[in-house]
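Moderator note: this is an archived Q&A kept for reference. The question asked for a predicted structure of one protein chain; the sequence and the answer are reproduced below.
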Amino acid sequence: MPASMFEFGLFGRLRQNAGPHWEHYVAHPFLQQLGAGTLPEIAFRRYLTQDYLFLVHFARAYALLVTKFHTLPEIRAAAGSLNNIVAELPLHVGYCAGWGLNETQMEREPEATETINYTRYVLDIGHSGDALELLAALLPCVAGYAEVGLRLLADPATVMEGNPYASWMQNYSDQGYLDGVKAAIELLDRVGQQRGADARFDRLSEIFTTATRLEGAFWQMGLNAVENPVNAW
């Protein structure tokens, strides 16, 4: 996926309007340390555990998105994303096993405040708004991780050889993942054209930027585990 895809259509406008909040999210110190291979393991393990819990709620949000659509192509698109997340969970669990984390342990881990804040915000938007508003809340995660992966691989400061986080970076720059992101960005644009995004831009931008801020807080949660290891794996 070319970098210009992140500037495409409604997503590109929302991303630009998020301003410094977007840059803080995709270039967070957590990611800079991850790219350099210097991120403390406790920070990454904390992130992995909470990300498992996050993905469960993210799947719920996409299941909700399916119900917001009325045409079969849109339903298929939303269901495809839901299926991808559900299929990703066993892969996530397998990856976490390499860090000494099993699914039972992660299921029992209390949700961090940052996890609750983010996931419940997205679900609240889904319950109170329409498909367009829910997509605006979902896209910072979906597309942001692709931008993170591509930026890290392109960054001269990134170390791949001997970096314990190399496979994580490669996962989010994988062509299969990027194809899914492209489809999500295009779906947002189509739904925006159908449902009056221009007239609703301020509200959509508020939702998108809030979700972006919550993404940044999610990275910070991982870093906070270094200084406060209580409940951190």
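Archived answer notes: Residues 37-226 form a domain with the Heme Oxygenase; Chain A fold (CATH 1.20.910.10).
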